[in-house]
């Protein structure tokens, strides 16, 4: 029963990874050990998943499901990879709303909020490194697009979707 | 909220997230920025603090960060229907796009124009994150010690492989310590 196996594989992938590139070794293992894909095909999936909108894990799941068992396959893998969100995270959401007004939670959050800002700052740094540099040197068109984006967002309150479309257009013109 | 109103809002959330789902780049941070703009600044449905809380929870439980944050937000707005429909919304566009691409991904992957446009899109992720972070800064720091916690978080996430869940737990402990110090200072003043 390939659907069940696909589902179970992506449940495992969903639960043991915390988003982003951390799930790639696991996807590799699941795909190759079942004989569903070769290593090169998995590398292709990752490339495509990064080029299209959507979180990496979800995109990989859709793509792998489609490749192995068509549209039903992709539905199965998508719900597999979403299973932690729909169970653990939903439970967390319920608990959070319930204890929203508790003093203990408020005190905990006084530290969690700034900690989260530090986490975001770290993500910004790693994004900046991977998006503006290549092999140790700056990619000038990317830097320019970044600066233009910052001005448009901060000064002219451009919306995020519009900025993304504009940046794609600028990329087409400026990148060689 | 009556059951009918709840479903109505859940449906609205589905359509909203289906629309913004087309712009999920940079690990979903562009969506967070857009949510902040639409729900904090424009509609006042939530606050910067609450959004930050959802990011903390969303990153510390298993699953993709953005689908977790979307679910948490949907739940806070319209209960279980809101939670589920919001997640279904955010995945709609990516799933459709990827399903279609399976048939022609070779051409897509090797297309030089796609690659160029993507350099541009990726370059936009950092300014998007910076601007949304700037407005969160105003609310995340009621006490001076909080800046120290941010620095700690940055250092831990950048230079150690500590898991997000552990970092968040550590943040909670810092919070307890800060509040204890603040309460002690208050008591000292009064007494």
Short précis:
The complex is a heterodimer of chains A (176) and B (191). Chain A is mostly helical.
Main attributes of the structure:
heterodimer, A: 176 residues, mainly alpha, two-stranded antiparallel ribbon, 7 helices, flat, B: 191 residues, 2 domains
Blueprint (SSEs and pairs):
The complex is a heterodimer of chains A (176) and B (191).
Chain A: H1 2-16, H2 24-33, H3 39-51, H4 56-98, H5 103-132, E1 133-134, E2 137-138, H6 140-156, H7 160-174
Antiparallel strand pairs in A: 1-2
Helix pairs in contact in A: 1-4, 3-4, 6-7
Chain B: H1 3-20, H2 29-42, H3 48-60, H4 65-101, H5 105-110, H6 112-140, H7 145-159, H8 164-190
Helix pairs in contact in B: 1-4, 2-6, 3-4, 3-8, 7-8
Please explain how this structure is put together.
The complex is a heterodimer of chains A (176) and B (191). Chain A is mainly α and 176 residues long. Helices cover 81% and strands 2% of the residues of chain A. Chain A has helices at residues 2-16, 24-33, 39-51, 56-98, 103-132, 140-156, 160-174, and strands spanning 133-134, 137-138. A two-stranded antiparallel ribbon of chain A has the order 1-2. In chain A, α1 (2-16) crosses α4 (56-98). The longest helix of chain A is centred in the middle third of the chain and has 43 residues, at 56-98. By secondary structure, chain B is mainly α. Chain B has two domains: 3-136, no CATH class; 141-191. Chain B has eight helices and no strands. Chain B has helices spanning 3-20, 29-42, 48-60, 65-101, 105-110, 112-140, 145-159, 164-190. Chains A and B meet through α1, α3, α4, α5 and α6 of A and α2, α3, α4, α5 and α6 of B.
């Amino acid at each position: 029963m390939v659907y069940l196996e696909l589902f179970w594989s992506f449940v495992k992938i969903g639960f043991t990874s915390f988003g982003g590139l951390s799930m790639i070794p696991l996807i590799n293992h699941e795909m190759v050990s079942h004989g569903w894909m070769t290593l090169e095909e998995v590398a292709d999936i990752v490339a495509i998943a990064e080029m299209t909108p959507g979180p990496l894990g979800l995109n990989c799941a859709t793509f792998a499901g489609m490749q192995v068992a068509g549209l039903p396959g992709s539905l199965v893998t998508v719900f597999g990879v979403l299973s932690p969100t729909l169970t653990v995270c939903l439970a967390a959401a319920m608990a959070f709303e319930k204890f929203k007004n508790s003093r203990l939670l408020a005190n905990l959050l006084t530290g969690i909020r700034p900690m989260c800002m530090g986490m975001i700052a770290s993500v910004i740094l790693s994004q900046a490194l991977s998006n503006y540099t290549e092999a140790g040197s700056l990619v000038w068109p990317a830097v320019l697009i970044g600066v233009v984006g910052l001005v448009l967002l901060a000064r002219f309150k451009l919306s995020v979707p519009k900025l993304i479309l504009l940046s794609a257009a600028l990329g087409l013109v400026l990148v060689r | 909220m009556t059951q009918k109103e709840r479903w109505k809002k859940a449906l609205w959330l589905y359509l909203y997230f289906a629309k913004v789902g087309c712009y999920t780049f940079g690990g979903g941070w562009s969506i967070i920025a857009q949510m902040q703009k639409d729900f904090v600044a424009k509609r006042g449905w939530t606050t910067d603090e609450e959004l930050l809380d959802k990011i903390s929870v969303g990153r510390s439980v298993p699953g993709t960060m953005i689908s977790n944050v979307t679910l948490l937000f949907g739940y806070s707005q319209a209960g279980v229907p809101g939670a589920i429909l919001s997640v279904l919304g955010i995945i709609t566009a990516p799933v459709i796009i990827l399903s279609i691409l399976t048939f022609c991904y070779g051409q897509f992957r090797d297309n030089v124009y796609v690659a160029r446009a993507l350099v541009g899109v990726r370059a936009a992720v950092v300014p998007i994150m910076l601007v949304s972070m700037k407005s969160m800064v105003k609310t995340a720091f009621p006490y001076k010690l909080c800046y120290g916690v941010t620095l700690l978080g940055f250092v831990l996430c950048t230079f150690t492989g500590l898991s997000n869940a552990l970092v968040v737990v550590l943040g909670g402990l810092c919070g307890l310590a800060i509040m204890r110090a603040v309460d002690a200072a208050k008591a000292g003043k009064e007494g």
